[in-house]
Amino acid sequence: MASFLSELPSISTILSAYASLSAAIMLFRTMLSDMVPSQIREYIFSKFSQSLSYYFSPNFTFIVDQNWQAVSNYTYRAVETYLPTIIGTSADSLLIGSFSSLVPHNPDLRIPVGCKITDEFQGMKLEWSLHKETKSSSSHWDNGFWYSYRLKCKKSDQQKVMATYLPHIYSIAQTILSKRENLHIHTYNKGMGGWKSAVFKHPATFATLAMDPESKSEIIKDLETFVQRKEFFQRVGRSWKRGYLLHGPPGTGKSSLVAAIANKLRYNIYDLQLQSVRSDAELRSILTSTTNRSILLVEDIDCSTKASRDRTMIRDEQEEDGEDESDQSPSSSDPGITLSGLLNFTDGLWSSFGDERLIIFTTNHKEKLDAALLRPGRIDRDVFMGYCTFAVFKQLANTYLQIDNHHLFDTIKNLLKEVSVTPAEVAQQLMRSDELQGILESFIEFLKGKVGNKIEEEN
Known about the structure:
alpha/beta, 18 helices, elongated, 7-stranded mixed sheet, 4-stranded antiparallel sheet, single chain
């Protein structure tokens, strides 16, 4: 023991060595400060700190950003859907709310920024947290903020998280999203540069939709086939999307059909007004910020943009109206959407930006649309929404009056053969009172008035 202690350096030797080392470190720092730019120094120190943290920390962190490679990150959405299902005593704060004015029995739960939630899965202890960062330049999806979820786990569990835990989250989220109670309708806000959403509570369903029964059945079958054919679309090399064109006179139920489709499939709606889009590049940016399992709705496309028509048609219309084509062209600072840009997002390379999507166009004047927009592959299903037939009237009578037959139906049937009346007009007449006989008699008088007007116009 004495020999061991005798071999130890003296205190003065230790202090001398420490002083020499300190002087060397100070000299190195001075040289580094004088010779290496600050940006490079910061980079070196950050890498050095990360290396120390990696080797000495037992934890690993997964970062799930809100967007991924310029599109909405499905993993982020899956985590956002999954976490409220595991909220328990481990959460230190929660956001709660309701979309209904009624007292909610089960308010919606959301994760606030900074909240930490622990989860246990197959023996692993996992910790989630939501982070919010300010970005120097905002984009159409974040309005200046960037959100991300952080998942902390043990380094030894990293591969297991990738192999089993994340697939578990995807599966749970898919089940929840397919049965979600609240749908949303999003509209693009040009001034704010992003989608703004509201709860979608439209009551229309296929059961209440006033439409030709045969056409309705065909659409339902088409939709059910579409959502079940993911493998088919992958096998044939096509994007998992479907294009619809709804056309017909105003008031024939085009918007109600869109609502019925959304309610049946449980798809959110992105309502895009093309006149609010300034260029093809902005259109691409807008579309990539939409989510899977959604409907992109472009209403009144014949009015929304002249890109939906060819130049010959535009020139003929302008000549009839006495307009100069140069007066109608968009300014160089706001060029608008071109026909090629519109076509590229319907079936070009940019149409493959997501899965399980419906693109629905509506118009009152199909004849005004360019033929290139209507070809197969861009419009997969052409749906004509016509005037009210007797079969459609019977559906409306069943919905509004809760009757399947009445002795006045034969008179109504004959009158509907002579005049054109929209389902919206019929619905308005059937809502006028609660007295059945009076409603039907009033409706007959309404139809007779239309017959009289038709005869006067013909004469």
